[in-house]
Amino acid sequence: MKRIILIAVALLLMVGQNAFAGVIQPARLKYLDGEVLFRTPDAGDWSAASLNTPLDEGDSVFCPDGTRAELQLPDGSMVRLDSGSRLNIIANEEKFVHLNLASGRLYIRTTQAASNGALQIDADDTTVLPAARTRLRLDMLPDGQEDVSIFKGSAYVEGNGSRTRVRAGEHIALEEGHNELLPLNAPDSWESWNMERDRAMPVYGKSGSYLPEELAIYGGELEASGSWVSAPEYGMVWRPTVLLSDDWAPYRSGYWGWRGDDYVWISAESWGWVPYHYGRWTVIASFGWCWVPPVRGDVYWGPGYVGWYRTGSHVGWTPLAPGEKFYGHGHYGRHSVNIATTRVNADRIEYRNRHHRGGMTVLNQNDFLKGRPVNAAPSLSSSVSVSYSVGSPRIRPQ
CA-CA distance, 108 to 97, in Å (whole number)? Predict the structure, then answer.
């Protein structure tokens, strides 16, 4: 009987943990050089990708001739694709990402947070398992040969029935039935481009100490595009200092894309990943709009932390202030309500930021459904009569 009770308790704990499990953060298109394409499982055609497009299981990225792309994985690792390369995301799980290079070549820079076994890259019959703090490239050559070159760190390379640990300064050539360990080739233009991108990556600076541990990898990016100021009520908050205008407000430079049965904010701002998918926004006298990071232990990736409005012809939204509830389709931390399991009375909803300058954005529903960039829309107006809506619009894009 005691054993049965223990099993029952364990099952209840597992159910409880699953019920409150947060949405797993997707990968992100961090940099584009040219018109890069991507495809999702529910879309048969390739579409033009944009900066900060989220990428998840089943998605593919293709770089036509003359283009390059840089992806950022959830642990901060960078994956770069050269012209003519196609990458498939096989799995994106908690602390594990599985990639498949279908053609071309890629470069990977793993972070210190990338634990061993957290990343797997396949290419035909070759599997690469990089260690943390490793820089490598994987080339699929026209003659069927595959090369793995290690510039820093190490990786296990599996192919032709063997498993080899390749270290910095070495590259392994894998042909049918034969592996050969060799010194690195002389640098080419692809390698030089990646070295330049690595050197240009911003350092953490002080930002890392102002962020929860889970977001410290984004400290350099925030520091390069903004500054931290002290707010008596919230501690250190971040404000963007680039690409700003007098009427700038969050969630207004970009568009809402339909991903994973929900609308996800896709920012046109280079820094627009962490401040729009974590934490909240507030207005502070003499500083304007500032981003308030989440506290440690309550870090949940979200599609866009806004409150929604609807009428028959318009869709609107407001950036959520600290402590305000996010009504979403899933669990997004203690300041969230899963509307799939909880009924909410919209008449009791009120958002503090609505009354600040730029605090409410209203877009014609047709423009919203077409994914029209918000900052180019002439129909932005807070004078349109709208009602509070519980959660994002349940209407698919056109």
Answer: 13
**Rounded distance between C-alpha atoms, residue 177 and residue 159, angstroms:** 9
Cα–Cα dist 331/325, whole Å: 11
pLDDT, position 43:
79
pLDDT of residue 11: 38
Which of 74, 69, 44 has the alpha carbon at shortest distance from 58? 44
Q: Which residues make beta-bridge pairs with 39?
A: 60
Listed residue (366, 263, 368, 377) closest to 316, CA to CA: 368
Direct distance between the N- and C-terminal alpha carbons of the chain, in angstroms, rounded to an integer = 57
SS3 223: helix
Q: How many other C-beta atoms can be found within 10 angstroms of the C-beta atom of residue 19?
A: 10
The CA distance from 106 to 85, in Å, is: 8
Grouping H, G, I as helix, E, B as strand and the rest as coil, residue 197 is helix
Instruction: Give the percent of the chain with pLDDT over 70.
Output: 91
- pLDDT higher than threshold 70 for residue 169: yes
Q: pTM of the prediction?
A: 0.90
Average pLDDT, stretch 82-97? 96
Is residue 368 classed as helix, strand or coil in its secondary structure? helix
